[in-house]
Amino acid sequence: MATATLSASGAASCIFIILAATTMSMATSYSYARETSSRSCIAAERAALLSFKTSMTSDLAKRLDSWRGHHCCQWSGVTCNNRTGQVVKLSLRNAFIKEDKKIVWCMPHGESGGLEGKISSSLLALQHLKHLDLSGNNLGGVGVTIPKFLGSIKSLTYLNLACMNFDGGVPPQLGNLSRLLHLNLEASVFSDTLLHSDDISWLSRLGLLRSLDMSGVNLSTIPDWVRVVTIVPSLEVLQLSQCGLSLQHEPIVHSNLSSLQVLDLYSNRIDTLNPTYWFWDVLIIKELDLSSNKIVGQLPDAIGNMTSLQTLRLGGNYLSGVKSELFKNLCNLSWLELWSNEINQDMSDFMEGFPACTKSKLWSLDLSATNLTGRIPSSIKQWKNLSDLQLSDNRLVGSIPLGLGKMTNLRSLILNNNQLNGSVSEEHFASLVYLMELSLSHNPVHITISSNWIPAFNLEVAHFASTKMGPHFPLWLKGQKDIWDLDISDTGIVDLVPVWFWTVFSNVSYVNISCNQISGRLPATLEFMTSAQMLDLNSNDFTGLLPLLPESLLFLDISRNSLSGPLPQDFGATMLRERVLFANHINGTIPIYVCQLQYMEVLDLSENLLVGQLPQCSKGRDDKEELNTTVDPGNRLLSALILHNNNLSGKFPEFCNTVHF
């Protein structure tokens, strides 16, 4: 008993000591946390950051508004070492950049809303900076190169300068960043600037590099680029899309890229795939993108050895005789693109060539424009994991199998431009609750969906052009409020446009209901379709006045209708490029407002009842006051002005001298 008492007493003492120690530790941690959070950053580094801010000429998103006061470690985008207070990370990536497994979108100059200005050399004072991300900000411009001094921030392990509008050559000084693990220099190919390099030998000095993206950088003058990149042993991700690259016909057989998992050579000048190319032997590659090149001939059998492949993109080439048996060992494959190559096979036979393991893994399959023939096999329902199925632009015949309606993971079903026939009913979509994109256009199928059917899905893209959908307006569309791209042109609809149509699709970007016999009036609220960019309503029976148009509209075709009355004095849609109104009953004069449409390329008012003279749209001294805001004629884009079969008089405006009539 005594022993037990002593043990309990000892245990109590131990518990007391542990609690005391824990309390002291918590107090110390709390005290340190307070000290760290209240500590201002290093004065020299704060000054360097403020100098960087001063070099900015625009900050529309107010990313740097918090950059004030002494506590720079609390500024937006700045991260400091908790112990030393030194700046170790500066991340000011523009929020517009959208990254996924396929692409990073670079916005054109002036549309990104990011920072504008120049990169200050004051960043050299951040001697412990490891992570620098300025991607998506317009800190370049014509004649502005990537700053050479960035190669002197030798503590960097991460450098992202993607989509920054730089010009000129890539500085070899970046090869001094020997600690670098990730380097992204991606450039936009839709820019006034051109980032290029004639020598990438500096990459060989980046022995620790794991990820390299130079997509969009012109490397076309470097014949031995393969030799350079293949001596960087640690590379796991190599992205060189749209670089103007080609592969030599006498390839390097071996490389040091034993760690490579992602190889992106999209949209280059590659024209052959020799079976001995170095990447066929990198057995751990998970993603291989050779799409949109100029590859001819047959796909090498070596593809079957790449058993780790999860994503394979070969679309947009000139491959012939592609056989599914080549993929028999690719049991990890989840994404396969073969579009615009020559399969030249019955679809049933082609699909049967895949191994069972692929049928359970694959979730994206694009066989568009591959010269597939025959029917869509009923066994397609076995591919239950498919989310994206694209079979457009082939020679497929017969009816659409009901088994498609049981592929519960389908989000995108693209079957347009085939020879499919038969009926399409709600049963075809019974279990497709995730369906977002549906295209059946240009197939002679009958859409026999009940008017009171309520779909389980919410479409974003709906294409039914040149199918047999009429004569009644498809009422099941009433619940599809997420659609931004709608095409029901030439579908045999002979009906009054329902009132709900303009409300349900008020957020749509593209609408095509042309070549039907749809009647009714255009709503006065048309201007409130604030996302609309294209409205094609031609060859119907719309009546009444032309209302004010959406400000975002770029293309309008309402020709071959029965519109009447005068044109509005203010059209709206100041960005409109094509306005096609021929073959209506529009009367009155052409309003002077057309003089303000700077971006107008095509204006077709022919075959109407217009009278009077054309506005001269000049800026001479004797012009009327209301013309003072007109566009400089030298800046006009107008290339086609079509006015025949009216009752117009007078002379053409001077700016029309180069216009086609």
From TrEMBL:
Key word Transmembrane present in the record? yes
Record family assignment? Belongs to the RLP family.
InterPro entries (alphabetical): Leu-rich_rpt, Leu-rich_rpt_typical-subtyp, LRR_dom_sf, LRR_N_plant-typ, RLP23-like
Q: Does the keyword Metal-binding apply?
A: no
Q: What is this protein called?
A: Leucine-rich repeat-containing N-terminal plant-type domain-containing protein
Per its UniProt record, what SUPFAM superfamilies does this chain match?
Answer: L domain-like (SSF52058)
Q: Which UniProt keywords apply?
A: Cell membrane, Glycoprotein, Leucine-rich repeat, Membrane, Repeat, Signal, Transmembrane, Transmembrane helix
Location of the Leucine-rich repeat-containing N-terminal plant-type domain:
44-81
This entry carries the following GO cellular component terms, namely: plasma membrane
Q: Which organism is it from?
A: Aegilops tauschii subsp. strangulata
How does this protein lie in the membrane?
Single-pass type I membrane protein
Subcellular localization is given as:
Cell membrane
Classification via SMART domains: LRR_TYP (SM00369)
